[in-house]
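Recap quiz, item 2
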Amino acid sequence: MATAVLSTAQLAPGQAAWRRFRRHRLALAGAVIILVLVLGSAFGPYLLPFDDTYIDIMKRFAPPLSGAHILGTDELGRDVLARLMMGGRVSLSIGIVAMVIAMAVGIVVGAFAGFYGGVVGAVLMRLVDAVLCFPTIFLLLALAALTEPGLVTTTVLIAATAWMAVARVVEAQVRSLREREFAVAALAFGSSNLRIMFRELVPNAIAPIVVAATLNVAKAILLESYVSYLGYGIQPPAASWGNMLNNAQIYLTSAPWLAIAPGVAITLAVTSFNFLGDGLRDALDPRMNIP
Amino acid sequence: MARYVVNRLAQAIMLLVIVSGIGFAVLHMAPGGPLSQFAASAQMTQEDLDRVTRQLGLDRPLPIQYLDWFGRMLKGDWGRSYRDGEAVLSVISSHLGATLELMATATIIAVLLGCWIGILGALRRYSLFDALATVGAMIALSIPTFWFGLVTIYVFSVKLGWLPSGNRETVGDGSFLDLLHHLIAPAMVLALVETAMWGRFMRSSMLEVINQDYIRTARAKGMPEWRILTVHALRNALLPMITVAGLQLPTLLGGALVAETVFTWPGMGRLFLDSIGYRDYPVVMGILMFSATMVLIGSLLADILYAVVDPRIRVG
């Protein structure tokens, strides 16, 4: 065991983390799948002869691999593959943008709560606890029902129901880092509280933040699929992986392929982000550097 | 012990106040706020609206309105459904049974199956079974519940014809076997995510315990392996699972909503979604507050129960 510790200790921290990450084959596979899904959604539509909203009622319910439509057509004769790719753009973008917003809110709330502690910290963290009492889907649907559905609202609402876990992670990190020498030194230098929080403490907590961010994307993609499937997210004719499954249940007997492609896409994307997050956790966990 | 319970209870009450504050804020986010029901009617003049505003006390300052609303919530007056004028609490309670039936069944499946998988995975760490279980759990946590429901319907109802594709009973039947027959698919779908979570928590709890000194001591004094596992390891590994049960409740409720929607199960989740469709805000708000309160009480009970079985908690 001692040799293993020595060999990683000689590497730069980034290199050591990369080595550990590479060992985690499922995380690597996840990263590759994410890359394929992103590239496919970004450039795929340019390679297809079909538009995702083009309705061809004569060719409705064409099964997969029959003629030009690789994944078949839906109840309006739209190409399923084209919709899957355009839906991927929407679903993946929502996943990533919602994550960014949730991270921003969670980091700010967590940093303030962890740094100031006391009443400020208690109030902020009890707010986090309170929001966590609401089952996410219930809160998300209630908010979605009260607002005009669309891309922006869906993204913001998903972020609004997903920032609490991040806030907890950041709060715990900042609270323990606050007492460390480098933070005290920054204080002695006369750095402002804001500077200490966001230039010293938060960057030092980057490993758990990155892990939380990755898992957050998985959660956001999943939540988008739930609200859109239930009809309160992305509205047709725009496609998203969730709303493609909207009508799938009605046509389950006659056209099961309509349910398969989007469901597989969601599962693949969410599983990949989850495995990636798991791998990053193993790779970035600083405890592994301590012999 | 009493001090711990009182302390924890005070925390829960404070949380309930914040939770109700969030609920009240959501209520006032509704287009037209609590007035929307009346504003929707074309026969209402501005004068009528003003009168209703005064009657409902909506012209008072918001903090007063909140206190009034919160007070009525505590007394059990949760307003009336826009749809049929029935009291919100009685609408909820008439749908609660179906949801609890589904959640309880799924939980029993998940606890038994999840703990078994988790324990076996921990005892045979890094074996093929453990690897498959770990990957399987991650995939189970990533599958959208509604999609798994659709796949289940396709396989077991459409293709094999073994299970009904929805509802709680066949109209005119409703015998125990018929109810059970309808329960299998939705409970299975709801149990998937739960099983994965129980399995993961059980595995890590068991791993932590079997590396403890007292296990080595038991082994050193020649105790039979099965006795070490059941008496020493399992009993200690199962303790933290009480907390997991509390933590699971929000996921379980959310999953129930989705499973109920896919399988047209007449429970609280489906009622919630229907009420959203009808813009029946009192019921929507009622269920939102009801589920949050359930989660709150659930985690309170889990914490107290944990303190009862593990004295380290209440002292520390």
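Chain A touches chain B through 44 residues (CB under 8 Å).
The CA atoms of residues 52 and 242 of chain A lie 15 Å apart.
End of item.
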